Amino acid sequence: MKIRDIVNRDIVTLTNCEHEPIHIPGSIQPHGFLLGINLDWKIEFCTANIDTFLDLVCNDILGRKFSEIFGAPAQKELYDYVHNQKEQSVFPLELQLKGISFQIAIHKSGSVYVLEAEPQLQGREQMADLYAQTIQFVSNMNNTRSLKELCALVAEGTREITGYDRVMIYRFDENYNGEVFAESCREDLEPFLGLHYPHTDIPVQARELYMKNLLRLIVDIGYEPVPIFTIDDQENKNLDLSLSTLRSTSPIHVEYLKNMGVGATLTISLIHHDRLWGLIACHHYSPKNISPEIRLAAKLQGQFITSQIDLRQSDDEYEIARKTTVALERLTALNLPLEQHSFEIICANPELLKLCNATGVSICIGEKTYKNGITPPDEDINKIISSINVSEYGKTFSTNKLNNHVPDLVSYEHVSGIIYFSLGNGNNIIWYRPETVGVINWAGDPEKAIIIDSNGLHPRNSFNLWKQIIKHQSEVWLQPELNAALSYAHFLHNQIILLMLSDEEEKYRNLSDVLRETNLELENINWISTHDLQEPLRKIQLIASKVLSDTSETPSIAVLDSLQRITKSANRMQNLLIDILKYTRIKNTKESFQKVSLNYIMEETLQDMKEIILENKAIVECENLPEIHAVPFLMKQLFSNIMQNSLKYASINRLPVIKVTASQEPEINEYSNKVYCHWVTFTDNGIGFEQQYAESIFKIFTRLHTLEKYDGSGVGLALCKKIMQTCNGNIRAVGKLNEGTEITIYFPCDPDDSLIAK
What we know:
Blueprint: E1 3-5, E2 27-28, E3 33-38, E4 43-47, H1 50-53, H2 58-61, H3 66-70, H4 72-82, H5 85-88, E5 93-97, E6 100-109, E7 112-119, H6 127-141, H7 147-162, E8 166-172, E9 178-185, E10 196-197, H8 204-212, E11 215-218, E12 226-231, H9 251-259, E13 264-272, E14 275-284, H10 292-332, H11 341-348, H12 351-354, E15 360-365, E16 368-373, H13 378-390, E17 396-399, E18 417-424, E19 427-433, E20 438-443, E21 450-453, E22 456-459, E23 465-470, H14 479-532, H15 534-549, H16 557-585, E24 594-597, H17 598-608, H18 610-615, E25 619-622, E26 627-630, H19 632-648, E27 657-662, E28 669-671, E29 674-676, E30 678-684, H20 716-726, E31 730-736, E32 740-747, H21 754-757
Parallel strand pairs: 25-27
Antiparallel strand pairs: 1-12, 2-12, 3-4, 3-7, 4-12, 5-6, 6-7, 8-9, 8-14, 9-10, 11-13, 13-14, 15-16, 15-19, 17-18, 18-19, 20-23, 21-22, 24-26, 27-30, 28-29, 30-32, 31-32
InterPro entries: GAF (IPR003018), GAF-like_dom_sf (IPR029016), HATPase_C_sf (IPR036890), HATPase_dom (IPR003594), His_kinase_dom (IPR005467), HisK_dim/P_sf (IPR036097), PAS-like_dom_sf (IPR035965), PAS_2 (IPR013654)
Keywords: Chromophore, Kinase, Phosphoprotein, Photoreceptor protein, Receptor, Sensory transduction, Transferase
Organism: Flavobacterium bizetiae
């Protein structure tokens, strides 16, 4: 049987460093040994150092059954432990192998169970002591308010439990650059608190392993890796050690720690919202191992932090949120006039700056810009607005690095951060923050995090303080500040709408006053035209009548013809004035609407028109008509005008026939974008008209024929339309030239109609 090791001997270069296979090093640390057992309980993998702990050699046990080497009872205990997931996830298995007690950690890697055995440590801490320390820590934790205070407490508590020389709470930014957020260390050590480390210190593949395996231990930085051997029965045979505790570390990382002077480490992952938020990094300056119980207690410290991140960040933001809320309430409580001057009052109010802790604000309404505090010149404000309008930022935009979005400003030191909100129609509000020159203290130059030489890549060996100056950016806008700004922008938008409505209301009020005065003048003119002009017309008619009836002297034919034409013209003018008076008085009627029987209206109309109907030998056919809500005398005038119009424009080739039909029950009828329930149609066989004139015939003084051919003032149908408008109804005409006219009137639904009740 051929046996080989699976040690990964690839040299890390600049091109492959990001893909270094640190999860399959093929070796482990020497403070324990490793076995890989397949599903048939055959030993597939074994580390070379098993003979350090047991009287066994890996060559002798590879390929053999576990029970054959360690006995059936040990295999039974192992089997029970593997299938007890609850116990397995918390405590290692205490198991005797060849009469020696070991602590066994087990995990599955593909189809192989990986057993990592470490000898029992002397002087094991009692669980009761660790429990007492944990209870004390929880009590102290409740006295902290901020996240930073909690992390400082965790750093102190972890160092007390584990005994490491230095414990750091290491927090990542969005780009995985790290910052020592909290620290507890020996008094003689130089503190690292506040130092920043570039993202290259912990590469991508290392961060991925931290997400999978929450606890990582290096007992002795100067260790010699122990190779893992396996039966050489297939090509590229390997073992994934992502979840291993004993896994050997990347040579680059070991060299990095040696450059820092570290002798042993313990690292605990801090996972928040499925992302690596940070690490608890424990350093010791000599080799150090800790028991599984202490490892578990240290891991619990990490759980305390991750469970409290959201709560503590909320506490940190609460005071800011409270202040912005107070400012928002004071601003929205202002009693503002509905005029342009109100925006000047708003902008000058100091609460507008407190709203989002800004140093300046500008409000652009129409062509005017109101400003308060430290703001850029109007030229820069216009550049900012133009840049945002042409971009895809939308109606809201915020940044603390304005120079990344708006180039060529002359006042970056005054304006490095903005919150922008569009208020519609070209209006907007912008809050400003000035440049805050920042200093980042790096543990060494981040540009020299990796050194390249002929032997490959090496981590930096300098951790001297290196300062980076950050310019052209403001303090970051916090979410409570953004929320408050958004709320007030909505309020301001509503204020603009109210102001516009007020302006429109005032404009319409003025127009209404002008219209009222104009209508009064027109009514006076109408009174003059319909009353004062009646008197001279009567005199003309009287004089002409006397001359025509004077028998003492017979006038000539020419004079007689002139007098007759004068009389006819005076009669037409008098009728026109009477029609105009009727037309203008309709809208001023004071009579209230009431239930009207159209059958009764038709009877009265036919009685009044009896002589003219007989004179024209007309036939009127009428079916039962509905009851509607209307003004009775207007309905009588409406029916009379429609029927007189039919008789006036009767055909000379046939006797006039007028048919009146109607809806017998309420029915929905949509016409001209409105809904009606009753209709009445007057159909005649007169001369008709072309349908293109169907709308114009209802306009006042509109005539389709000359006076010589058909007499009339051109007011009749216009009067009918005005009556229907007064009754909230409608009217339409359908004509066929030389065949006849159909006029339909529509009445609105009554509240008592059964159709509407449904």
